[in-house]
Write a structure and sequence with these properties.
- The two termini are 28 Å apart.
- It is built from one helix and 25 strands.
- With 321 residues, the chain is an all-beta fold.
- It has a domain of 105 residues.
Length: 321
């Protein structure tokens, strides 16, 4: 993906100098065979490993696009290495694979500038269908037949819940933040409010229906998670779970910790005031640091995906006619 940055005229006004470069992002996976590069062409981002650990989903930036905001959905078989584009009629800006690995909910980036939420079966046995025409930024599976998505309402970011057939649209939470996630059972929303002047912010778990929010940490989602320029694509979620609830993954300023959970647990025992430091996270029972910074965790800590970003620039002098 190419881009032009900066224009500077020479003193005589007969030419100008500009920098033209190309950005590339490759998708990698780590498993029992070590680190392996999955993509070599295009701009790959937002990888996601299937719940059974056999497939890798990812987006490839659309050709001709200047910004990394949308892409084609691809899947790679991690055993055979075969790759296939899915849902070729759609460009997506966000997607989530269901906990059973059978479906995908996604936010479309269409030519009119709209971004509705759609749902599709990954086996192709049933056609994609639109869940809601309301514009969204991110979409997730909720409890039962619910879809949870982040959109806009009354001039603010709003998290909505809606039935898969588009009925019973409800506001769950109004927030100023830009980082979101949903628990595997769809009953809890992870939200990170906008950071304060010291570039750190809280991570809070909100119930979708009734109950009180839970503070995970008061000042741990820092610049690397919330406000850093996303030139290499979207970052891993600040808080997520394995589909079988055996592991909690916590993104502490770019470092991903895997924390084992006991049966029936949603969270490990947390301090009353929440986690405050990296040492607090590392001290949780069984906590394990994933070696790759900003890894997209899989069904267990031994398999994860990540991206590698490269930038190359050349300086050109262009005469003025």
């Amino acid at each position: 993906m190419t881009e032009e940055e900066g224009v500077e005229f020479v003193p005589d006004g007969r030419s100008f100098v500009t920098s033209i470069g190309s950005r590339q992002s490759t998708v990698w996976v780590h498993d029992s065979r070590g680190d392996r590069q999955i993509t070599s062409e295009g701009y790959g981002f937002l990888p996601s490993i299937s719940p059974d650990g056999t497939k890798l989903y990812y987006l490839v930036g659309a050709k001709g696009a200047r910004d990394i905001v949308s892409g084609e959905l691809w899947v790679a078989d991690l055993e055979s290495g075969q790759r296939q584009r899915l849902l070729p009629d759609f460009l997506m800006q966000h997607y989530t694979i269901s906990a059973d690995g059978q479906r995908v909910v996604f936010v479309v980036a269409d030519h009119s500038g709209r971004s509705p939420v759609w749902l599709a079966a990954l086996n192709g046995r049933s056609g994609p269908r639109r869940v809601t025409a309301r514009d969204g930024w991110k979409a997730f599976f909720g409890a039962g037949n619910d879809v949870i998505f982040v959109g806009e309402g009354d001039g603010a970011k709003v998290i909505y819940r809606v039935n898969e057939d588009g009925s019973e649209l409800q506001k769950v939470l109004r927030t100023s933040g830009s980082t979101f996630g949903v628990s595997p059972d769809g009953k809890w929303v992870v939200a990170v409010p906008d950071p304060t002047d010291d570039m750190v912010s809280a991570v809070i778990l909100y119930p979708v229906v009734g109950g009180s929010p839970m503070l995970i940490c008061g000042a741990c989602a820092g610049d690397s998670v919330v406000h850093r320029l996303e030139r290499s694509g979207p970052r891993p979620p600040v808080l997520s779970w394995s589909p079988d609830w055996k592991f909690l993954y916590f993104n502490f300023q770019g470092s991903i910790y895997a924390i084992p959970l006991r049966p029936g647990q949603m969270l490990p025992p947390l301090p009353a005031l929440g986690l405050r430091t990296r040492q607090d996270v590392a001290a949780l029972p069984g906590a394990r640091l994933i070696p790759e910074q900003e890894a997209f965790a899989g069904p267990n800590p031994s398999i994860y995906a990540f991206t590698k970003f490269a930038m190359q620039r050349n300086i050109y002098r262009v005469p003025v006619q």
